[in-house]
Write a structure and sequence with these properties.
This protein has helices at 3-9, 21-33, 36-62, 69-73, 77-81, 85-106, 108-115, 119-153, 167-192, 195-212, 218-227, 229-233, 247-271. The chain is mainly α. It has a domain at 44-98 and 138-271. Helix 2 (21-33) crosses helix 8, helix 6 (85-106) runs antiparallel to helix 8 and helix 6 packs antiparallel against helix 10. The longest helix has 35 residues, at 119-153. The radius of gyration is 20 Å and the shape is globular.
């Protein structure tokens, strides 16, 4: 989001006496879509996910004849079709961080809090607005990625269908995972109030640290790895039993992690100067 654009658009369009939650949500919706970065980050989430889905599916099909029979038996075409989400999630994560932090960067948050003195109402409105955008973006991204993957896998008769056991839940779960990734960005935006810091730490929590956690030794290292953000939340796209957390349990842990961060951030928003 550019500074000049946000400074102009962040003035709330709420008249005196109109600070109901519905009106605040309407104002936040207008602000969110009045900047170009919203559309660009949404498109980036979709296009990056779809591009990597196609790349992974093409590579798998091209080398399928050389795949070990044991690996063929455990191949999950649904989960593989959604693998591109791991990289595509960063677009919506960036958007989530900017929803709050950009107004702090420009000073526009002071105008918002002047118009709506109840700060938690502002946070709730931003949360509701962004959650809808993130979920819709995630569901569209996930379903298109699934069908793109199956176009390739069908050439080897290894495709999956939405009517197969657990497939519909996994594909919809891909959308939930993308939305949850966006909420990590939103939570750190509320906590840190600085865009660069919020984006950097959210990306580290979602991608860098989960990979590094694999190097931790012993049982405590295994426990941290199992419950760490992406490692836990990613189980929502599984269609076959895996070690550790189940799909909904893993996603529940993932949700609890960003929710705790958001609650701390919301508390600090009330306590700190704008």
């Amino acid at each position: 989001m550019t500074t000049a654009t946000i400074a102009t658009q962040s003035r709330p369009e709420i008249r005196a006496g109109g600070t109901t939650l519905v009106n605040v949500i309407r104002s936040e919706w207008t602000k969110l879509w009045s900047v170009r970065s919203t559309m660009w980050t949404v498109l980036a989430t979709m296009l990056v996910t779809w591009a990597f889905t196609v790349l992974i599916a093409w590579g798998t099909v091209a080398n399928w004849d050389q795949v070990d029979p044991q690996d063929r038996a455990t191949f999950d075409p649904t989960s593989q079709s959604l693998a591109g989400i791991i990289l595509g999630q960063f677009g919506v994560t960036v958007l989530g961080a900017l929803v709050i932090s950009s107004e702090y960067s420009t000073g526009g948050i002071r105008t918002t809090f002047t118009a709506v003195p109840t700060r938690l109402k502002v946070v709730a409105a931003k949360l509701a607005t962004f959650a809808v955008v993130a979920l819709v973006t995630g569901v569209i991204t996930s379903f298109v990625a699934f069908y793109l993957g199956q176009l390739f896998y069908s050439t080897k008769d290894i495709e999956a269908h939405l009517g197969d056991p657990h497939v519909l839940r996994a594909v919809f779960g891909g959308g939930l995972y993308i939305a949850g990734s966006g909420m990590f960005g939103f939570a750190f935006g509320a906590l840190l109030r600085k865009s660069a810091a919020a984006i950097s730490i959210a990306v580290a929590m979602l991608f860098v640290l989960p990979l590094l956690s694999n190097a931790l030794p012993g049982k405590w290292g295994d426990a941290i790895t199992r419950y760490f953000t992406m490692n836990a939340g990613g189980h929502i796209t599984d269609t076959r039993p895996s070690e550790g957390l189940g799909p909904w349990m893993g996603y529940g842990v993932f949700t609890l992690e960003w929710l705790v961060i958001l609650l701390v951030g919301a508390y600090l928003i009330q306590r700190r100067d704008a």
